[in-house]
Amino acid sequence: MTTRKRRIAVFTGNRAEYGLQYPILRAVSQHPALEYRLIVSGAHLDRNFGRTLDEIRNDGFSIDAEVTIEMSEDSRIATAHAIGSGVVAIARALEAAEPDIVVVYADRFEGFAAVIAASQMNIPTAHIEGGDLTEGGALDDSVRHAMTKLAHLHFTTNTQATNRILGMGEEAWRVHTVGFPAIDLISEGRFASADEVVQRLNLDLSRPVVLFTQHSVTTEFELAAQQIRPALEAMRALAAQGVQVVLTYPNNDAGGRAIIGELKAFETEPVPGIQVHRSLGRHLYHGVLALARDPAVRIACVGNSSSGIKETPAFGCPTVNVGSRQDGRLRGDNVIDAGYDVAALRAAVERCLHDEAFRATARRTVNPYYLGDAGRKVADVLAEVPLNQALLRKSMTLKGEARDGWFR
């Protein structure tokens, strides 16, 4: 008698999230006891944000459902509407897929809609990257922690995050510290070679390179355009000094379209040495960061993407973290913080490119998110966890006993 494989529905809502999920999706697809159903949504289906379905298909994965979540304008109410419509549309996709477990990632509003739909349909839900902190004014923490309380299994990237989830009253057997999945691919060398990077982006590695991405701070989305202008001005000044700048589009958060508007306006006045891309894709993006492994190449990652905090240490790449969006993130010694100020940004980037002591520190930095083989660890748990009422019936470990005041 053949045992049916467990069906794992993996939800992805944007390009960056998919790049982080790839090792998990790959491990699930290769596991003898598992099969996947891939549900794509959000920015993957939006040409304004680089419609990335081709990247998924080129990786060899089949897409089982395309779920449109409308996000037609930059506003808080548009995001609320998107979550509501997403819950309805994703629920239909899950009903058709009939999964045994649903996998969702991190802190995006699309993932929030997915975990609401799955948990309310009584489908066991696994949440990746819970317990992290980003206290800089984005709604990420609130969404991430809400997803944690709805989910039934937790896969964290570091022990601090694990301890926070335990501190939320989650049962210890549900929480698994696996590390950061994206580093699986980096440790395998699965990224573009320097030659490919040079050819595809027309770079001269004898000159400095900056890779730049800035997202909106969602609680300040009306300031998104204002906040990116100093950075663009700093990039313009650096390009005038011979620095090559590769700009990429932001996520489709509230405020994202305002940033894209600034990037498009920037493109109408072409600056030698600056190029703008909707999406580089994981393979090329990591290839650019990997240039930092050669001490002769002067490169900096600049902006407020979480990749600047979590992925750059794996390459020893000097990084400038702009603004507040990543406040509270666990980070390596390769990161410099800078505000929305042209002079401060230029100075921070120039330090990354020319300060030999800091460049050496960046190359030696310890990656606090690396444990190794995260994708396989996740797949093994998904294959082995008992699918029963104990998984669905969550218990609160904090009793709320009063001992000299409230006891936690």
Relative strand content:
5-15%
Number of helices: 16
Averaging pLDDT over every residue, what do you get?
91
DSSP E strands, number: 13
Q: How are strands sequenced across the largest beta sheet?
A: 3-2-1-4-5-6-7
Main sheet record:
7 strands, parallel
> What's the assembly state of these chains?
single chain
- Low-pLDDT stretches are none
End-to-end Cα distance, whole Å, is: 50 Å
Structural class: alpha/beta
Kindly list the characteristics that best describe this protein.
six-stranded parallel beta sheet, alpha/beta, 42% helix, 16 helices, 408 residues, seven-stranded parallel beta sheet
Report on the architecture of this protein:
- By secondary structure, the protein is α/β, with parallel strands linked by helices.
- 42% of the residues lie in helices and 15% in strands.
- It has a 7-stranded parallel sheet with strand order 3-2-1-4-5-6-7, sandwiched between helices.
- The longest helix is centred in the N-terminal third of the chain and has 22 residues.
- The mean pLDDT is 91.
